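Example for tutorial group B:
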């Protein structure tokens, strides 16, 4: 018999689309089920009424003025009706629910399934924008938003029994915020090999081109890549928004900007890539779900320690570098050197095959909850 539980998520996270948030949500839900729970899903829509939107505009904060009224009551009622002792809150944005749930049901245990604390990426956005403006300080409004987030994150953790995170470094971050217990849940790799027929000299990158860590990564990496590509190496760029992609193409003629692609189109395109460079240079929130996709495809990857945060494997490897120059050098070598590329593919296949299984990750979750 499985133990009743409640799984709370916004409806968008539960959609069957290949977004990073949706992929991580599905993984968490599958892990909860495999860990011995029968979760009753409670979904909701974030508030979009004009009073809530006005309050968010006047004082932006992802933890306030977003959750619908009565949601905590609905969760408590659902937990009572199914006999649940654990409530799983998907996303840290739901952490403020912990206090009212504990007020309604003091014996209820609450676990947050974190995709990363909002304050982490907001800090990086302020840091990166300051660097682009020669150190000009962030606006008071932006500073207030970040300080509000940190205080709200710390306050919510007083009522949370366990936080599951996507990357090892986030354990220490959660402890710093006051979490009682935190456990890293390694990413799984669901293998979907491509019919890989790489075109010599062609590499590919997929990303949100308006995401500040991605903006920083490309600004650091592309100038180094431009020194090495020559006339017979191309970078196929997949992402949005379109305006950002066109701006990069104008600056770097070796880029072929393809815009957004659906899953079938992306698989067909990626099957022609010699490698997938992932030039990440900051410790952003959560982990990169795109790395799991590249590993599942079975194509060589060139990335950094920041790029592989959240992943582990017993065998194999990806090609690692520390600096933008090293990632550029590795990517060009993978694009041009067939022998090196073939060896890198074997290593990636071994890494994907030896990544943690659903059963292993579920055992980790169950053991952590039993100690809570």
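The residue assignment follows.
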């Amino acid at each position: 018999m499985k133990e009743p539980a409640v799984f709370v998520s916004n409806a968008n996270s539960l959609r069957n689309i290949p977004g990073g948030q949706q992929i991580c949500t599905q993984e968490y839900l599958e892990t909860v089920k495999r860990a011995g729970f029968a979760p009753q899903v409670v979904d909701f829509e974030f508030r979009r009424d004009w009073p809530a939107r006005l309050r968010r505009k006047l004082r932006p904060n992802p933890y306030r003025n977003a959750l619908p009224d009565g949601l905590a009551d609905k969760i408590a009622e659902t937990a009572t009706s199914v006999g649940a002792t654990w409530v799983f809150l998907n996303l840290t944005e739901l952490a403020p629910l912990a206090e009212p749930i504990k007020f309604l049901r003091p014996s209820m245990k609450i676990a947050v399934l974190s995709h990363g604390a909002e304050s982490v990426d907001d800090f990086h956005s302020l840091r990166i924008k300051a660097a682009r403006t020669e150190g000009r300080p962030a606006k008071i409004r932006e500073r207030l938003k970040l300080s509000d987030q940190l205080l709200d994150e710390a306050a919510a953790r007083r009522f949370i029994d366990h936080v599951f995170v996507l990357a090892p470094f986030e354990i220490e971050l959660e402890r710093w915020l006051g979490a009682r217990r935190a456990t890293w849940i390694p990413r799984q790799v669901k293998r979907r090999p491509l019919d890989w027929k790489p075109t010599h000299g062609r590499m590919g990158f997929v990303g949100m081109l308006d995401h500040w860590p991605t903006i920083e990564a490309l600004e650091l990496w592309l100038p180094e890549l431009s020194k090495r590509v020559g006339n017979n190496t191309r970078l196929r760029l997949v992402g949005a928004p379109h305006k950002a992609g066109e701006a990069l193409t104008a600056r770097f003629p070796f880029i072929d900007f393809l815009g957004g692609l659906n899953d079938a189109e992306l698989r067909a395109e990626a099957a022609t890539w010699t490698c997938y460079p992932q030039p990440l240079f900051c410790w952003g929130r959560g982990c990169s779900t795109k790395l799991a996709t590249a590993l599942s495809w079975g194509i060589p990857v060139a990335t950094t320690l920041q790029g592989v945060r959240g992943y582990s494997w017993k065998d194999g490897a990806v090609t690692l570098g520390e600096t933008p120059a090293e990632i550029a050098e590795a990517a060009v070598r993978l694009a041009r050197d067939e022998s090196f590329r073939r060896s890198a593919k074997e290593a990636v296949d071994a890494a994907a095959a030896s990544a943690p299984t659903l059963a292993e990750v579920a055992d980790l979750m169950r053991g952590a909850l039993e100690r809570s």
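The chain has a mean pLDDT of 93. Compare this with the pattern of hydrophobic and polar residues in the output above.
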